[in-house]
Amino acid sequence: MARARDPIADLRRIAFLLERANEATYRVRAFRSAAKALAGMSAAELTERAGNGTLTELPGVGDVTARCVAESLAGEEPVYLRRLVATEGSDLDAEATALRAALRGDCHTHSDWSDGGSPIEEMALAAVELGHEYLVLTDHSPRLTVARGLTAERLRRQLDHVAQVNAALPEGFRILTGIEVDILADGSLDQDDDLLARLDVVVGSVHSGLKDERSKMTRRMLKAVANPHLDILGHVTGRMVSSRPAGVTGPGDRGHRARTRAESDFDADAVFAACAEHDTAVEINSRPERQDPPKRLIRRALEAGCRFAINTDAHAPGQLDWQRFGCERAALCGVPADRVVNTWSAEQLVAWTHNRP
User: Would the pTM count as exceeding 0.85?
Assistant: First the structure.
């Protein structure tokens, strides 16, 4: 058996790293409070409680901190601590490479039917060359007029066109139908329910009112996540961390002009808990200027039990190769491949979207 670690030292180390990462005070306090609650306990009592599952009966000890203690006592570095250390910048190229190799498709892409720069056929062939098995086409919905969002009628025509394109594509590859639907101010989705039900994958994102106050934004997102048609919550915070990536110019970058933007303010724990409850995946957006969600929120979504989708949000064929950026960030945060929906086959993915709670 592995020699036990010091669980109290591990809890304190986690609290320190959370604090250094500027995490919320209450998260730091949770680990410090647990360490304090266990400090006066004998090693024998601590081991006994970990074994019989009664650690959480102690004031200040929750499920997450109890799991960390059990892992320490088993001689393992707690997973939570390992993720925090990894996020501090250790080189995880091997893990990111393995995660990228596990991906079988991309669930968020755009064509020239909305604000992308290339035809559907060109996007599909680029995905084939990258080794994808599928590409989900998610052009914008009608209210996003700046991005030439698709009306219900245009979306119906696109569905017919995708069927024709699929018939001509190489065997073993398919375009899955989808949409990036706007999450409106009241939390409803910007497209007809009957059409949303027809689509293979629905990504929902907030594109307006990004500076809404915290409670309003939280209510908006919670209502959207509870909608049975919403499969993936897109670029969760809406932030822009940098100007347009180097080398990205032209029509394929419409809607992504050089700018920065702060994160929207919402109750992330409530939203991620809802995503876990409704089995809605959280997008890890691979666009270099988005890097959304930030790593601290990826960790929180992982802790909440969420699934993920590592997507490019590509608006041009070359951008389909940006998944590696999302994989790097996911690997740094310890996201396992079995929690990423686009490691599944197209059949598994569509079965999930059509059978979620």
Answer: no
